[in-house]
Amino acid sequence: MQGELANLTNAIEAAKQYGRFFCKFLTPNDAGINGAHQDGVYLNIASWDIFFNELSIPEIGIKERFVKIHINDWKQFNSRIVYYTSKKEFRITRFWSNAPFDRNEMVGALIVFIPLSNDDYNVYIFNTEEEIEEFSQTFSLSLADNYTIYNGEANIVIEETFEDKVLELVAGYKDFPETSVMAEISRKVFMEYYNKKKILPDKDLINWIDTEYTVFRLIEQEVYKEKFMQPFGELQPLLEFASSALNRRKSRAGRSLEHHINYIFTKAGIPFDNPGKTEGKKKTDFLLPSTIDYQNSEYPQENLILLGAKTTCKDRWRQVLSEGERIPSKHLLTLQQGISENQLEEMEKSQLQLVVPKSYHKQYPEAYRTKLWSVSNFIDYANEKYR
Q1: How far apart are CA 182 and CA 259, in angstroms?
Q2: Between the CA of residue 149 and those of 4, 72, 185, 244, 257, what are the distances in Å?
Q3: Distances, alpha carbon 281 to alpha carbons 193, 310, 323, 324, in Å
Q4: H or E segment and range at residue 225
Q5: How confident is the model at residue 251 (pLDDT cuts 50, 70, 90)?
Q6: pLDDT for 160
Q7: Does residue 345 have a pLDDT over 80?
């Protein structure tokens, strides 16, 4: 635990010092466990400047360069950055064979590349919820698209006209609205801007979460703008402000997913309590059809559904198992982009059904993709019981 904390602290300090980085969730293809011939972590073409600096993207042939990789106290080694124009593939190879990680356990982990110079990169891998959330919330990152390129405060990559639409709704805020209100603003601006009349649960859940990062950042700027315009004078007030701002980011992210699921279920006409109460003081994120039915011993057990909701679940999924004694088979809706085969096997043995937005299924080991449920699958399952 102490080593993880030091690793996280070093990563945050380096990212702040150098001001830019590329990060992504590792997929089975990235870890090289799907049996593909190519080996290496796939990079997004949007990160070209992070890895090839001022060089332009070629139209034909292969572009490659060698860089030095630094991983904590591990020995420095060389990796190859390569772009194949014929296949439009952009990867870093000669990484896993030199790095001190078990690639089989890295699916769903967050990898961060911080350029120290043109040829040197610090690399960090975070494989627990606490590390992933602490790092992403420190920089207010949206990882809905699997990857993010961070360039100081310029990492809100969004159409200017869309940002104008957001600004219309958040202008004038002197304090932060309730998290439910912020989620509502995010849905409203997305649905209105793209003129969407119908909800697509798997796609729009991700769209709303992604939009909410932009909404929150812009509200932050409105609320904190006076503090930014005058110096703090002393270190302690600055530290207290920074701690308060970071804690607000964390608490918002934790509730955001529940608010959007609540909205989707309500629109779908599904009965539920959020939160639900089971035994004693135990609570679960969603209890279907209701707490009253759960606590009624005569209500058919097979018609009860318990659904946990966690943005990440590499470790916390076990919490769901103890939340309702009457329901042996439980469900967990998560935005986690990939989990190792060992953990998925453990979940299966524990009768936990994962519910993951459809577009994220490809981030999971191939052998388990058909066992995942989409958000739409869960809605259909619930509708069959309660209609």
Answers
A1: 9
A2: 23, 22, 25, 25, 23
A3: 42, 20, 10, 11
A4: helix 201-228
A5: low
A6: 47
A7: yes
- Assess contact for 219 and 182: CB atoms under 8 A: yes
Label residue 216 exposed, middle or buried (CB < 10 Å: 0-12, 13-18, 19+): buried
Strand-pair category, 330-334 with 352-355: parallel
Enumerate helices (H) and strands (E) in the chain, giving the number of each: 13, 14
Paired with 56 in beta bridges are none
Task: Name residue, tokens 């302690």.
Answer: 236
CB atoms within 10 A of CB 231: 9
Distance CA 236, CA 9 (A): 19
Residue pointed to by tokens 């439980």: 330
Asked if 99 contacts 286 with a C-beta cutoff of 8 angstroms, the reply is no
Q: Give 373's DSSP letter.
A: B
What pLDDT does 349 receive? 96
* Helix, strand, coil share (%) of the chain residues, nearest 5: 45, 20, 35
Give pLDDT tens digits for 5-14: 788 999 999 9
The crossing angle, in degrees rounded to 10, of helices 375-386 and 201-228 is: 120
Q: ∠ CA(317), CA(99), CA(138), 5° rounding? A: 50
The neighbour count for residue 324, using CB atoms within 10 Å, is 22
The tokens for 293 are 């039915």
The more confidently predicted of residues 130 and 370 is 370
Give yes or no for a contact between 41 and 11, defined as CB atoms under 8 angstroms apart. Answer: no
In sequence order, the 6+-apart residues with CB closer than 8 A to the CB of 168 are none
Residue 289 backbone phi and psi in degrees, to 5: -80, -20
